[in-house]
């Protein structure tokens, strides 16, 4: 198989042996972020389709996710960093309660960190109380929530209601991302209920553009 195709296959098959050598070969040809976006994410997309249609079982999805994480970790030092842009602002980032998906959230962390933002990454399955505490403790400018399950879209709504109830909505603009969300759900339905700013990020780069806009 050609290199790109082989890398994509490694994600789909959860095959780690030889991964780093292939990534290094790809790095000689293309920037790290392009490898993630065009090749590795394409592999994860196939995994999602296979799993969704019952052709792939959960343990294999987990293996694919692990290989994806190793690949991103290997590529991360090669990603462009905007030097001297530190201290642009702080975001508290979390995968919401009940949800373990964190590959997308961690990509958001990398992109924002590399572009001068301080990211307080709380991890997965975070209750709203932990998110609020961290935001207050770190003087966050923005709260970012990620979640991939349909259930998580409801939790995000509840979390916004909790921020309203604590009178924190005006203080914290919120960025939401994850596969089960739609722009309409966030920018119409959730926008209606939240007393502050709530925005949808389709991918990590839109997350970055939103941070720049919200903090400016
Ligand atoms: Co799960 N899973 N999974 N899974 N999994 C999905 C989400 C699913 C769509 C698969 C499917 O059925 N086709 C489905 C959800 C269906 C639904 O809710 N209707 C599903 C399911 C059902 C489940 C379980 C319930 C399965 C089970 O146990 N029976 C279970 C849930 C456990 C739980 O959360 N309580 C489960 C478990 C797992 C694994 C642990 C095996 C693994 C996760 C490993 C990990 O993350 N550490 C896993 C995986 C890998 C997937 C799929 C295949 C791939 C997700 C992924 O990493 N994509 C996924 C299929 C899919 O999404 N279509 C699926 C790559 C990643 C980069 O994309 O996270 O969307 P994503 O991030 C994007 C954007 O969304 C955006 O930026 C990123 C790209 O730049 N973004 C943000 C995300 N967050 C953002 C935040 C921002 C800004 C942008 O600002 C705050």
From TrEMBL:
Show where the B12-binding N-terminal domain sits.
1-87
Q: Which residues form the signal peptide?
A: none
Q: Which residues form the B12-binding domain?
A: 88-216
Family of this protein: Belongs to the vitamin-B12 dependent methionine synthase family.
Entry domain remark: Modular enzyme with four functionally distinct domains. The isolated Hcy-binding domain catalyzes methyl transfer from free methylcobalamin to homocysteine. The Hcy-binding domain in association with the pterin-binding domain catalyzes the methylation of cob(I)alamin by methyltetrahydrofolate and the methylation of homocysteine. The B12-binding domain binds the cofactor. The AdoMet activation domain binds S-adenosyl-L-methionine. Under aerobic conditions cob(I)alamin can be converted to inactive cob(II)alamin.
Summarize the protein's role.
Catalyzes the transfer of a methyl group from methyl-cobalamin to homocysteine, yielding enzyme-bound cob(I)alamin and methionine. Subsequently, remethylates the cofactor using methyltetrahydrofolate.
Protein name as it appears in the record:
Methionine synthase
Q: Which organism is it from?
A: Streptomyces desertarenae
Q: What range of the intact protein is shown?
A: 663 to 878 of 1185
